[in-house]
Design a protein that fits this description.
With about 775 residues, the protein is of the alpha/beta class. The chain is built from 25 helices and 32 strands. The protein folds into three domains: about 190 residues, Aconitase, domain 3; about 170 residues, Aconitase, domain 3 (2-Layer Sandwich); about 200 residues, Alpha-Beta Barrel (Aconitase, domain 4). The longest helix is centred in the middle third of the chain and has 16 residues. This is Aconitate hydratase, mitochondrial. Keywords: 4Fe-4S, Iron, Iron-sulfur, Lyase, Metal-binding, Mitochondrion, Transit peptide, Tricarboxylic acid cycle.
C-alpha cells in the first residue's frame, strides 16, 4: 500500500512548483498502512493519532510546540485531560515499542513472567550484545560467548517466543545500531532498557532509556509515566568540516552542561547546521546525550534521515514521514527552556576525560594538559566502535586515516581494536575493504557487540593498578569502566581521532598540525578524512540473526532451573507495614561520584544479571566510603568491624535490621541498569538519601519500593555520620509534594531533625505501599 504515500509526496512536490498551491490531504496516507518494521508487517505507524493528539494539545496550550513536545504529547494516553507543565507534572504515555538488551532483558522478562500476562501488548525485541567478552577476535569471542551463556540465551529465546518478543541472536550487533537500522523512525516513542536508547533520536524519534520495570509496564499495556520534560534547544549553525565530526558536537555540549546539566530535559537540536550532519552522525550525538543526564535527545526530520531510511530498505517509511513532515519538525516560534548555540564552522576536534565524560579538551590542548596533570601520555590501546560510533561512515573515516598511514609504511604504535555496530555493518565494511585496511594498520576486529565499552574486555597488556592511558570512541569513561582497572585513564573522542592517536601512540599528537615519520624516514601529515556516509552499493545484511516470535507461543516452555547460578525466579518484595521507618542503620555514606557502575558493576558481573541474589554480591563495591576513603569497606554497626559492603548488608538483613544509603550529587548516573535498585531492596535497604539523583535511577528505586529522598538543604549531608541511626517519620501522611522529616540519632544520644524532599506522585506512592510497582500491578489485576 506504500505507493499511495509515494504518490501523495510526488503530487505535493509537483503542485508546489506551480503558481497555485493545493493541499494534499493526509487521508491519502491513511489508506496506506506502513509497517513500523519489515519484521512486524502487521504493526503499523500511526501518524494519524499523533497528528490528532498534537492538534488537541496545541489548541489547549495555545502556543507553538517544540518537536520534543509534539512527539511526547502526541503519545499521551489522554491528551484532553492530561495536566501538562514542563518539569512538574507526570505524563501518562503510550509508547510504540520496547527494546531490551540481553543483560537487562533477563530481569525484565523475569518480572514479566511474574506478572502472569500471556503476551506483550506492544512490539518488543531482545538484543544479545552485552554478554560477549572481547578476548581474541570476533568469531572466536562470539563462539565462546555462545558456549558460556547458553543457558541465558536459551532463556531469552524461549521467553521471547512464549510472550511474543522478537529475538536478535548473539552476533547480530549492538541494540542501538539494530534499532536504527530496523525499528526507529521519525515520530516514534520507543523505550529501551539501556541508557543509550536515545541513539534513535538521530532518526527523529523520542527514544528513552528506562529500567526493566518500566519496560514491563509498557509490555503489559499499562500507560507509562514520565515527568514532563523540559526542553533544551541546541542551535547549530555553520557546517562540519575537516577533522571535526558529529562526536565533537556532543563532547562540546557535555563540557557545557556537565554530567547532570541535562537532567529532566530533552535536548533538541535545530538550526541550519543540522543538515550538514549525517543521520548516523545525529545518532552519535543523541546517543551520548545520556552522559549529560538528558531524558533523551532528538533531531528534526530532514533529507539526511530520508536518505538513511531508503538505504536501509524503508522507502515507504520515508515517504510517509515526508507526508507528515510538519509534525516531525518544531513549530516556528516555539520556546526552549534554555538555548545553546554552536557554530560548526568554529568547532574543533575534542577529547574528553579522563574518568568523566564532561571533562572537555580540544585535541590541540590535550597533550599540554596531560603533561601538567601527570596523566600518562603514551597510549596503550585505541578502541573504535561501540553503540556511539560504529556506523558505516565512522568506519569509513577511520579507514581513511589508516590508509594514509599505510601508504607511508606506518602502522599503529598502540594496540588497536574495532567493534562493528551490527552484522550488517560488519558484512558491509568487509565487502567494501574498510575492515581489511583497519586490520592492515594493526587493528583487531572484535565481535558485533558492546565489548570493552561496558567492561567486557579480557585485557592482558597491563596489571590491575598500573597507570595507563587508552583512547576510545565510546561514550563513558568512568573509573574502571572499560577494564576494571581504576588507574586506566580513559579518554573519549571520535573514531578518526582515535585512529590517528593510535598510529602516533601519544596524546601529544595533533593530527591537524603534527607530522609522522614514514618507513622511508620522511615526514608526512595526515589529511582530514573523507568517507561516504552510506555505502554506494546496498548494505550487505550478512548472516540472518533474527528469530521471529511464533503467532501462538502459549505452548512454549521457558525453563529456569532452581539450582541455576545464572537465573532465578523472582519473589515479591514485602509490603510497607504502615509504620515510620525508625532507627535505620547507615550501610554507607558515599563520598563523591557514585554511578550505577559503582552501585552494581558490569564486566564479570554481567553473567549474574538474571540472578538477583548472586548479582547482589556486587552491591556498592565501587563506592567510596566517606568514613575511611576506601571502596568496599564499611563499618558493621553491630560488630564494629570493617568488611565488604554486600556482606555487611546481608548481615543486617539476617538480623532483621533496615538500612539506608547516604549519597552525594547525581547519585546513580550512567546506565539504566535496575539491578542498582533491585540489589539494595533485596538486601534489606529501604531508603536512599542524596543531594540529587539521576533520572533513570530515581525511577528504578521507586519501582522497587525504595524511598529515594533528597536533602532540602544539601548542607545537611554533612550532619549525617556513618555511625548515626536515621528515622523517616510522617509516612502515614505520605503525599505528593509534602516533604518528610528525618531524625538523626547520634551515638552520644543527641538528635537532629532535617527535611527531606521527594518527587513521588500518587501512583508511585502506591508502589511504595505495595512493596514494588510489580506488586501493585498484581493488586490491580486481582481487583
Amino acid at each position: 500500500m506504500a505507493p499511495y504515500c509515494v504518490l501523495a509526496a510526488q503530487l505535493r512536490q509537483a503542485l508546489s512548483n506551480g503558481v497555485r498551491r493545493y493541499h494534499v490531504a493526509p487521508v491519502m496516507c491513511q489508506r496506506a498502512k506502513v509497517a513500523m518494521s519489515h519484521f512486524e508487517p502487521n504493526e503499523y505507524i500511526n501518524y494519524e493519532t499523533l497528528e490528532k493528539n498534537i492538534n488537541i494539545v496545541r489548541k489547549r496550550l495555545d502556543r507553538p510546540l517544540t518537536l520534543s513536545e509534539k512527539i511526547v504529547y502526541g503519545h499521551l494516553d489522554d491528551p484532553v485531560k492530561q495536566d501538562i507543565e514542563r518539569g512538574k507534572t507526570y505524563l501518562r504515555l503510550r509508547p510504540d515499542r520496547v527494546a531490551m538488551q540481553d543483560a537487562t532483558a533477563q530481569m525484565a522478562m523475569l518480572q514479566f513472567i511474574s506478572s502472569g500476562l500471556p503476551k506483550v501488548a506492544v512490539p518488543s525485541t531482545i538484543h544479545c550484545d552485552h554478554l560477549i567478552e572481547a578476548q581474541i577476535g570476533g568469531e572466536k569471542d562470539l563462539q565462546r560467548a555462545k558456549d558460556i551463556n547458553k543457558e541465558v540465551y536459551n532463556f531469552l529465546a524461549t521467553a521471547g517466543a512464549k510472550y511474543g518478543v522478537g529475538f536478535w541472536k548473539p552476533g547480530s550487533g549492538i541494540i542501538h545500531q539494530i534499532i536504527l537500522e530496523n525499528y526507529a523512525y521519525p515520530g516514534v516513542l520507543l523505550i529501551g532498557t539501556d541508557s543509550h536508547t536515545p541513539n534513535g533520536g538521530g532518526l527523529g524519534g523520542i527514544c528513552i532509556g528506562v529500567g526493566g520495570a518500566d519496560a514491563v509496564d509498557v509490555m503489559a499495556g499499562i500507560a507509562w509515566e514520565l515527568k514532563c520534560p523540559k526542553v533544551i534547544g541546541v542551535k547549530l549553525t555553520g557546517k562540519l568540516s575537516g577533522w571535526s565530526s558529529p562526536k565533537d558536537v556532543i563532547l562540546k555540549v557535555a563540557g557545557i552542561l556537565t554530567v547532570k546539566g541535562g537532567t529532566g530535559a530533552i535536548i533538541e537540536y535545530h538550526g541550519p547546521g543540522v543538515d550538514s550532519i549525517s543521520c548516523t552522525g545525529m545518532a552519535t550525538i543523541c546517543n551520548m546525550g545520556a552522559e549529560i543526564g538528558a531524558t533523551t535527545s532528538i533531531f528534526p526530520y530532514n533529507q539526511r534521515m530520508n536518505k538513511y531510511l531508503k538505504k536501509t530498505g524503508r522507502a515507504d517509511v520515508a515517504a510517509l514521514a515526508d507526508e507528515f513532515q510538519e509534525h516531525l519538525q518544531p513549530d516556528a516560534g516555539c520556546h526552549y527552556d534554555q538555548v545553546i548555540e554552536i557554530n560548526l564552522n568554529e568547532l574543533e576536534p575534542h577529547i574528553n576525560g579522563p574518568f568523566t565524560p564532561d571533562l572537555a579538551h580540544k585535541v590541540t590542548e590535550i597533550g599540554i594538559v596531560a603533561e601538567k596533570e601527570g596523566w600518562p601520555l603514551d597510549i596503550r590501546v585505541g578502541l573504535i566502535g561501540s553503540c556511539t560510533n560504529s556506523s558505516y561512515e565512522d568506519m569509513g573515516r577511520a579507514a581513511a586515516v589508516a590508509k594514509q598511514a599505510l601508504a607511508h609504511g606506518r602502522k599503529c604504535a598502540s594496540q588497536f581494536t574495532i567493534t562493528p555496530g551490527s552484522e550488517q555493518i560488519r558484512a558491509t565494511i568487509e565487502r567494501d575493504g574498510y575492515a581489511q585496511i583497519l586490520r592492515d594498520v594493526g587493528g583487531v576486529v572484535l565481535a558485533n557487540a558492546c565489548g570493552p565499552c561496558i567492561g567486557q574486555w579480557d585485557r592482558k597488556d597491563i596489571k590491575k593498578g598500573e597507570k595507563n592511558t587508552i583512547v576510545t570512541s565510546y561514550n563513558r569513561n568512568f573509573t574502571g569502566r572499560n577494564d576494571a582497572n581504576p588507574e586506566t585513564h580513559a579518554f573519549v573522542t571520535s573514531p578518526e581521532i582515535v585512529t590517528a592517536l593510535s598510529i602516533a601512540g601519544t596524546l601529544k599528537f595533533n593530527p591537524e598540525t603534527d607530522y609522522l615519520i614514514g618507513s622511508d624516514g620522511k615526514k608526512f601529515k595526515l589529511e582530514a578524512p573523507d568517507a561516504d556516509e552510506l555505502p554506494r552499493l546496498e548494505f550487505d545484511s550478512g548472516q540472518d540473526t533474527y528469530q521471529y516470535p511464533p503467532k501462538d507461543g502459549s505452548g512454549q516452555h521457558v525453563d529456569v532451573s532452581p539450582t541455576s547460578q545464572r537465573l532465578q525466579l523472582l519473589e515479591p518484595f514485602d509490603k510497607w507495614d504502615g509504620k515510620d521507618l525508625e532507627d535505620m542503620l547507615i550501610l554507607i555514606k558515599v563520598k563523591g561520584k557514585c554511578t550505577t557502575d559503582h552501585i552494581s558493576a558490569a564486566g564479570p558481573w554481567l553473567k549474574f544479571r538474571g540472578h538477583l541474589d548472586n548479582i547482589s554480591n556486587n552491591l556498592l563495591i565501587g563506592a567510596i566510603n566517606m568514613e575511611n576513603g576506601k571502596a568496599n569497606s564499611v563499618r558493621n554497626a553491630l560488630t564494629q568491624e570493617f568488611g565488604p559492603v554486600p556482606d555487611t548488608a546481608r548481615y543486617y538483613k539476617k538480623m532483621g535490621l533496615k538500612w539506608v544509603v547516604v549519597g552525594d550529587e547525581n547519585y546513580g548516573e550512567g546506565s539504566s541498569r535496575e539491578h542498582a535498585a533491585l540489589e539494595p531492596r533485596h538486601l534489606g535497604g529501604r531508603v536512599i538519601i542524596t543531594k540529587s539523583f539521576a533520572r533513570i535511577h530515581e525511577t528504578n528505586l521507586k519501582k522497587q519500593g525504595l524511598l529515594p529522598l533528597t536533602f532540602a538543604d544539601p548542607a545537611d549531608y554533612n550532619k549525617i555520620h556513618p555511625v548515626d541511626k536515621l528515622s523517616i517519620v510522617g509516612l502515614k501522611d505520605f503525599a505528593p509534594g509534602k516533604p518528610l522529616k528525618c531524625i538523626i540519632k547520634h551515638p552520644n544520644g543527641s538528635e537532629e531533625t532535617i527535611i527531606l524532599n521527594h518527587t513521588f506522585n500518587e501512583t508511585q506512592i502506591e508502589w511504595f505501599k505495595a512493596g514494588s510497582a510489580l506488586n501493585r500491578m498484581k493488586e490491580l489485576q486481582q481487583h
